[in-house]
Amino acid sequence: MAESTGASYAAAGVDIEAGDRAVTLMKEWVRKARRPEVVGGLGGFAGLFDASALRRYERPLLASATDGVGTKVDIARRMGVYDTIGHDLVGMVVDDLVVCGAEPLFMTDYVCVGKVHPERVAAIVKGIAEGCVLAGCALVGGETAEHPGLLGPDDFDVAGAGTGVVEADALLGAELIRTGDAVIAIGSSGLHSNGYSLVRHVLFERAGWSLEREVPELGRTLGEELLEPTRIYSLDCLALTRTAQVHAFAHVTGGGLANNLARVVPDGLQAVVDRSTWTPAPVFGLVGRLGEVARPELEKTLNMGVGMVAVVPQESVDVALAVLADRDVEAWVAGEVRARESGAPAVELLGEYADGA
Fold first, then answer.
1. Cα 146 off chain centre by
2. Which residues form the PurM-like C-terminal domain (predicted)?
3. Model confidence, pTM
C-alpha cells in the first residue's frame, strides 16, 4: 500500500509519542509529591483527592489560587535550566493560599511548549513536584500541551492552580487587624517571580549584560542570581498560625510591598513601614542603578527583599520571630499599624534603606 501523503498531527508539529515519554519520565517525581488523601496515580482525566479528610473541620472553607511565573521562564530557557522554575510556580500559588490561613492541599499544573522535549518537560515537572513537597501539598495532575507554530521549538510557559482549606473561624484578614499591631517582614530569596520584564529590559537591553557575566556584588553569575527560586512560605506561615496569634498575611508579588500589604489593611488604619529596618539584596540596587529606575517605580515593581508580611499583635511578636528563626527564615519587625488620617495611604514607607539604597 502506498504511503499516505495526507496531513497528520505529526506533520503539523505535534509529537504524541514524545508527549507519552514525557509523562513516563515525570511520573516518579509526581509520586513524591503526594499526600495520604490522594486517590490513584498520574494518568487519569482528573486528579482525585479524598475530601473525607475535611470532616475534622467544623466549617471548612476551600481556598483557590492560580498563577504563573511570568517572563522568568525566558531566563530558564536561555540558561537551559528547567528544574527550578517549578519552585517559582508553586510558591506563587501556595503563598497566595496561605495568606488567608489556608493549608495548601493540592495543585495541578499546565506546561505549554512549542515542541515536546521529554527530558525538558520532565525537569519542569520535577521542579513543580519538589516545590509541592516543600509546600506540604500534593501534585495531583496536570497537562502538557504542544503548540507548534504558536511557540518556538524551545519556548515554554507554565501555570498552576491550587486548592487549600481553612477553618472558618480561623480565617485571617483585614477585619482582624487592630491599631498597634506589629508588621513583621519576612525576607525574600531574591527577585522571586515578579518584575522580570523590567529586570530583563534593564540588564539585557539597556546595560547589555549577559547571563554568563560574573557579578562580584552578587557573588555569582547574573543568570544564577536571576534564576534563584521563589521562597515557598506556606509551611512557615502555617507554623506561625499554630504557635502565635496572627491577624493577617500579605504575599508580596506584583505591585510591591506597599500595594500588597494595602490589600489587608482595613479602612481607617494605616501600616507604617520603616525602610531602615532592612537592607535589600544587591540585585535590587543593581537594577535600580543600571536602569536609572526611580525608587517609587522600583518599589512598586520588585519585592525589595520582603516576600511575605505577617501582621500580629504586639504580644505575639517575640513568639513569631522565634518560630521563624527556628525555621531558618529571616524576619524582623518592620513597622506597626496606626490610625489613618484622612487622605493618607493604607501603607506608608518611611526612611531610607539601611544601606542607603
1. 25
2. 179-344
3. 0.90
